[in-house]
Every structure is written in C-alpha cells, then in structure tokens.
Amino acid sequence: MADLLTGDFYTFEDLLADDERAILHRVRAFLQENVVPVANHYWARAEFPLDLVKGYAELGIAGLAYPECPGPKPSGLLSGFLALEMAHADPSMATFFGVHTGLAMGSIATCGSEEQRERWLPEMSRMEKIGAFALTEPTGGSDVSGGMRTTARREGDTWVLDGAKRWIGNGTFADLIVVWARDTEDGHVKGFVVEQGTPGFTATKIENKMALRTVQNADITLRDCRVPETNRLQRAGSFRDTAKILRGTRSGVAWQACGIMIAAYEIALRYAKEREQFGRPIAKFQLVQDLLVRMLGNATACLGMVVRLAQLQDAGIYRDENSALAKAYCTTQMRQVVGWARELLAGNGIILDYDIGRFVADAEAIYSYEGTREINTLIVGRAITGHGAFV
Predict the structure, then answer these.
(1) Which of 297, 306, 365, 279 lies closest to 333 in space, CA to CA?
(2) pLDDT confidence band for 66 (50 / 70 / 90)
(3) Mind listing the pLDDT tens digit for each residue in 248-301?
(4) H or E segment and range at residue 4
(5) Residue 142 exposed, middle or buried by CB count within 10 Å (0-12, 13-18, 19+)
(6) Is 56 helix (H, G, I), strand (E, B) or coil?
(7) Distance in angstroms (rounded) separating the CA atoms of residues 183 and 237
(8) Where are the alpha helices (DSSP H) in 153-285?
(9) Which of 7, 143, 171, 199 is deepest in the core (most CB within 10 A)?
(10) Domain residues of the chain, as ranges?
C-alpha cells in the first residue's frame, strides 16, 4: 500500500473510506511509476505522451462520477484527492485529465440529453474518445459570458458555427470538442459537440508557452462549421448552464493547487536534507526550516478548505461562491509556496532536473484558468454583500 504523502501533515487522506483509499493508492503508484519519470522530458519538448493514455484508461477512473459509466460512484473527497494526486505528479497531465473528465464529460453529463450521455460518455470513460472544452475566445476570457462572439445559426436540422476559440486544452487531438456559441436567433449561449475532422473546424497548436507545456492547447477556428441538431447539447439553454459545469471543475482546480503545493514542499524538504553548505545539511538552518514550515502551513490550510468543500459537495449544499473562494485562495497560496521552494533551491531551482522549476511555471497557468483570482473574488464578494460589482 502506498505511503501517505509527506505533505499531508494532518493525514486528511485517512478520511477516505478503505475502498476509496485503495483506488487513490493505485493511481498514485501508476503516476509515480509512469508519469513522474517522464514529466520533465515531455514538458521540455512541449510534447504530449499519447502512449500514456492507455495507462490512464486502465485505471478505470475517468467518468466514475457519471451514472452512464461503469464502476462505483466516488465521493467528492475521492474525486478531489485524485485531482490532487495528478497535479502532485505533473500539473500538465492533471490538466489533460481534468479537461477530459471534468469539462468535456461534465458538459455532456450536465447538459446533454439521455441519448447523448449514453452515446458519448461510456466511450469517453474508457478514454477511447478524448474530449476538449472550447469556451475562451481570443478577445474574450473573463467576460466571455456576455462578450462571446462565436455564433450558431440554425438551418433546418443543422447548426452553422462561426468564430474562434483560444487556449483549448487537448484541442489539437481531442475527438470530441464541446464548443459554446451564441445563438443568433435568441442571443443565448448553447453547447455543441463538434467531432474532430468536421469540415470548417481547424485546430492549431499554441506554441512558445512557458507553463503547462505538455498540454496541447489550441487556437480553434470555426468557419461555416456544420453540426447536426443531434450534436447540440439539449439541456444547455443559456450561459447559466455553462456556469454549472465551471462550478464543479473550479473546485477541482483548488485541489490541483494543493497537489502542487505538496509537491513543491516535498521537493524542497528532500533537497534541504541532501544539500550541504558550511559543512552541514541546509535543513539545519533556521531560515530554511522557516521556509519549509511556511510551505507546509499553506498546503495544510488549503487542504483543510478543499476537504470541507468536498463534504459540502457530497451533501449537495455547496454553492458557486464556495468553489470560487477555494479556487481564489488556494491558487494564491500555491504561488507563494512554489516561490519559496524555488528560493530554497537557489540556483538549482531554475534547472528542470530539480523539478521545482516546472511546478513554478505551471502554477502560473493554474492560477489563471477556471476564472482569475479577481473574477472569483467578485463571485464571493457578491455572495457576502448582496451586491454585484463586476462591471
């Protein structure tokens, strides 16, 4: 059985049921044996390890939360710990998995008809088909709900999509891309499943990224892209339905932030015990211990927050502002932790061989996606004051 993570100082993992802890440990073993050893290799080359997808599929955890997919239904706590574990190994691969299972599958599960869920989710749960989620646009990020320019025009039993999307994770190779577009007739945002290879759909890899380099983000162009009515998500009638998906995945990002903090802390702790200066390990110096304790404190506080968030999810009483606060706070603390870890490693902290540089860079992307700190702050601010202050 896998050991507890060193950074889980209050052993929150013990809150899992025995069968769920066994699943977590099986995933941890796979990640440590197959993903961690090659993470730097693929990150440096900005390439995606397609050969690892089969291994992820064999874990049997993609889509566990959805009724159409086989297997026992996980608690919110297990789902959270799985997101943490993946980010702890490699934030890029955690993002790949989160886009597929959370954003793409989540869109179909939440907004698709029964026929659509049965049509796509089982294949996606086996990872025979990979999903992507196309919401952000070249000129629209935080304001995309009101400023979406991608349009959908109905012609009989066909919808014609025109526009552009940006930063679409998995976009270069995904089989099914959930595209959000504004209906030209009623002005509401609707969701469409566009299959890779559809005429009028083009995906171009975004180059020269400094973060999540393994993730294949794409610029997507839609020009007279025609999809059948059967590919329109039947229960997506406005942006409020899109927001339902983001509420759930936003909490997953907070868990990812905890995984990154724990990884950074463990890298720094290991280095402090091994690195010698002035004739002794630097772990014996007071200032080094101070940095380590700050890192551990941040990680532990944030882990306590997301554990409670998972409990609220399981009870069916969590709200948008709960996820928003966790995402905003945990990713802010994450930036501090990876910065302190890099500081502790000094010059070696910027060399990929020591791992922490990758986490420092990747943390910047985690900090920004699924709603910036400012947007999530405004969601919480509206909830606690009763006044919206967006624009």
Answers:
(1) 297
(2) confident
(3) 788 999 999 999 999 999 999 999 999 999 999 999 999 999 999 999 999 999
(4) none
(5) middle
(6) helix
(7) 10
(8) 239-274
(9) 171
(10) 12-125, 131-231, 239-385
For 250-261, how does the pLDDT look when each residue is reduced to its tens digit (9 = 90+)?
Answer: 899 999 999 999
CATH number of 239-385: 1.20.140.10
The letter for the amino acid at 103 is L
Distance in Å from the first CA to the final CA of the chain? 52
Euclidean distance between CA atoms 53 and 126, whole angstroms = 10
Which CATH architecture describes the domain 12-125? Orthogonal Bundle (1.10)
The set of residues, in sequence order, having a beta carbon less than 8 Å from that of 145 and lying 6+ positions away, is 189, 239, 242, 243
Class of domain 131-231: mainly beta
Sign of CA dihedral 25, 84, 67, 133: negative
Name 272's Cβ contacts closer than 8 Å, sequence gap at least 6. Answer: 281, 282, 283, 288, 292, 344
Beta-bridge partners for 134? 179
Closest CA to 65 of 77, 55, 54, 52: 77
Cα–Cα distance for residue pair 126/56, rounded to 1 Å: 9
CA separation for the pair 20, 27 (Å, rounded):
11
pTM of structure:
0.95
- Contacts of residue 218, Cβ cutoff 8 Å, sequence gap at least 6: 132, 168, 171, 172, 203, 204, 205, 206
